[in-house]
Amino acid sequence: MTSENLIRVQDLVVRRGNATVLDIQELTIRQGRVIAFIGPNGAGKSTLLLVLAGLLRQAGGTIYFQDQPVNSAASLKLLRQNTSLVFQEPLLLNDTVYNNVALGLKFRKLKSSEILRSVSRSLNYFGISHLVKRSARTLSGGEAKRVSLARAFTIKPQLILLDEAFNSLDPPSRESIIEDLQNVLNETRITAVLALHDREETLRLAQDVAVMSQGRIAQYGKTAEIFNQPADVFVAGFVGTESILEGLVISGSAGCMEIAVCDRVIEAKGDFPVGKKVYCCLRPESVTVMPGLSGITGSQNTFLAVVRKIVRQAYFYKLYLNCGFPIAAYITMQSLEDMDICEGKVLTVSFKASAVHVLDRDAKL
Amino acid sequence: MELIILGIIKAFELIVTFDAEVLGITWLSLKISGTATLMSLLIGISIGTAVALNDFPGKKIIISLINTGMALPPVVVGLFVTMMIWRSGPFGFLEILYTPYAMIIAQAVIATPIVMGLSIAGIQNLPPNLRLQMLSLGASRLQMIWVLLKEARLALLAAIMAGFGGVISEVGASIMVGGNIKGYSRVLTTATVMETGKGNFDLAVALGIILLILAFLVNMVLTQIQQRQRPR
């Protein structure tokens, strides 16, 4: 019976010169999961992927692959033979697409008939069968990326590692490659570790998320948990919680609290004691915007707000408002036009008590 | 001008009549420089690859020394090799001074840093993560090196051309360690020097032209191979 833990990392330390670039006490990657490592540049995501691929030696700690420590040439070979790393750049050889995709299997000295079968399947996965005879140097960026992904899947790895693999692709190519990757991961059930910095890609692809900062894992859990219940202000900020407000718990009972924020009172779910200094975290998509005074009904978490700034996003607008405290909200272009929203306009904003994620302000970051 | 025209006519005459002495000298030049280039490839590419792929203290100094070696004056090499294989030198027991073997060694010493320096540059010019990508696909160290050398083949072919060009055209070392012995260690460059010294300019020009044709033919073949491999 195979273990559920594909890879486990304990007390991992990686140094570059005198600087510690990775310091992870415990990390377990379960078989069949898709995990995204997100974090700012220099957080250690790429370094971690290199270590997990067996391509970078750690200064301390142990990696366990299928519950066996990777501490000998044989175990390192086993790890490398069962993992496949896709770098940001496609790194294709000056050869045909077929020979590029077949490379891993040729290294393993498989029979040509077997190689042909595996290569054909991988090319099909990524819709590039028609490119099989083309020279890799004549491919577009999107095609080259597909070839590099097909090459990684051809060796049927147990673990696939993708290091910001969708960067530098135009939006349509990125969109369709992500879709194909999702399908392949669903079909093959291969465990995947992705280093990403795009929240949308993370939400689409990952079942689990680890947020990294300065070589450490700040929070690791299910995607929804990370995005809705960030463990600290750093994670909250990184996963797109726009409004992080300092507050003070002024009353509480039965899992509900009233929190003073500036000169307003916000209702939130939680059990912090009265007098506790907290942060109230609110995602922009949890905030509803209504025209004028129409929404003021005296219910909780409904405030009059003045529009401070309107920022156009890809398919919608982001409003920065002031309702005694700063708050951000998303709105569609249609709603923006219908409500005739402009800077300085007074609107009503509301959000549910359950949408407010409360963090202890005294907790150690 | 007349000398040059006479030289060209003489060269043509020597070539079409298959002059035995000239053919012998040409063949010996090709054998000595070809063997020296081959030796320099074996040493230069293997050490160049090792230097390019490994990080070690003093690497930059080593590369600087190799690059300096690319401009080694042939007479200095000739002097050094002569002292090494002189009767009382450390390799005097080999008794190869004034033989084609000594010329091969001297020419290999000249070509090796050229091949090594250009190999290092060619391999270092590859994408830095390519090596890791190959290992990640399950390549053994040898398989990885083979792939990298294949990817750097354009630069390596340029290294072969530069190495061969450097030795087929040198005269100082060959004359010092080979002695320019007729029918034994006389090559195109040493013969050209000798004929010029004797005032036989037409023959010297003819030998020079044959040398140029030889260099051109070898480089043309290598260039054909190189350009066929060029990414389109």
What is the SS-derived class of chain B? mainly alpha
The helix content of chain B is over 70%
The chain-level structural class of chain A is alpha+beta
Q: Please compute the radius of gyration of chain A using only Cα atoms.
A: 24 Å
Low-pLDDT parts of chain A are none
* Inertia-based shape of chain B: globular
Query: Gap between N and C termini of chain B, in Å?
Result: 44 Å
Number of strands of chain B: 0
Major sheet attributes of chain A: 6 strands, mixed
Characterize the largest beta sheet of chain B: strand count, sense, and whether it forms a barrel: none
**Estimated radius of gyration of chain B:** 20 Å
Q: Helix and strand succession of chain A?
A: EEEHEEHEHHHEHEHEEHHEEEEEEEEHEE
Identify the strand order in the major beta sheet of chain A.
6-7-8-3-9-10
Strand fraction of chain B equals under 5%
Separation, N- and C-terminal Cα atoms of chain A: 40 Å
- Quaternary organization: heterodimer
Helix tally of chain A equals: 10
Shape of chain A: globular
Could you characterize what this model shows?
The complex is a heterodimer of chains A (365) and B (232). By secondary structure, chain A is of the alpha+beta class. In chain A, 27% of the residues lie in helices and 36% in strands. Chain A has ten helices and 20 strands. Chain A has helices spanning 45-52, 73-82, 97-107, 112-125, 141-154, 171-188, 199-205, 223-228, 233-238, 333-338, and strands spanning 5-16, 19-30, 34-38, 60-65, 68-69, 83-86, 159-163, 191-196, 208-213, 216-222, 243-253, 256-261, 264-269, 277-282, 288-291, 302-312, 317-322, 326-331, 346-350, 357-360. Chain A has a six-stranded mixed beta sheet with strand order 6-7-8-3-9-10, with helices on both faces. In chain A, strands 13-12-11-14-20 form a five-stranded antiparallel beta sheet. In chain A, strand 9 and strand 10 form a beta hairpin. The longest helix of chain A has 18 residues, at 171-188. The model of chain A has no long low-confidence stretch (mean pLDDT 92). Chain B is mainly α and 232 residues long. Chain B is built from eleven helices and no strands. Chain B has helices at residues 2-16, 20-53, 59-69, 74-85, 100-124, 130-136, 141-151, 153-168, 172-178, 188-197, 201-229. In chain B, helix 4 crosses helix 5 and helix 8 (153-168) runs antiparallel to helix 11 (201-229). The longest helix of chain B is centred in the first third of the chain and has 34 residues, at 20-53. Chain B is globular. The A-B interface holds A 50, 53, 55, 80-81, 83-85, 87, 89, 91, 93-94, 103-104, 107-108, 135, 137-138, 151-152, 155 and B 127, 129-130, 132-140, 143, 147, 150-151, 229, 231-232.
